[in-house]
Amino acid sequence: MPRNGGNWSLVSDMVAKNRRLIVFTSVKSKEQSEGIAYQWNYMVENQYGDGGRKTGSCPNRAESSNLDDKSKSLVLVNYFRSVPLKPVTCSDNSASLIDMLQT
After folding, report:
1. Are 40 and 70 in contact (CB under 8 A)?
2. Which of 65, 57, 72 is nearest to 102 (CA)?
3. What is the DSSP string of 27-70?
4. The pTM is what?
């Protein structure tokens, strides 16, 4: 994770060094005690499940800062149904997902 205001590693650098895994925790104390990145210090996340799939709306997850928080350098995008439906998975992950990313 970035130190002292630094940037995240580039994916190309991670691949070159064969270090391709970033682990986050939702337990704040683990960043200090174990050096595992506390997710809410670094990312914003939209609502998961059906609540995050409303056309033209992109609410943040309750635990997350607002999605326009520029102090966070990563965005985790959820786009899946609360109850998965295998027959529509491909269509769910096509144009409607692209539209949501633009929202």
Report:
1. no
2. 57
3. -THHHHHH--EEHHHHEEEBPPGGGG--TT--PBPTTSPPTT-T
4. 0.78
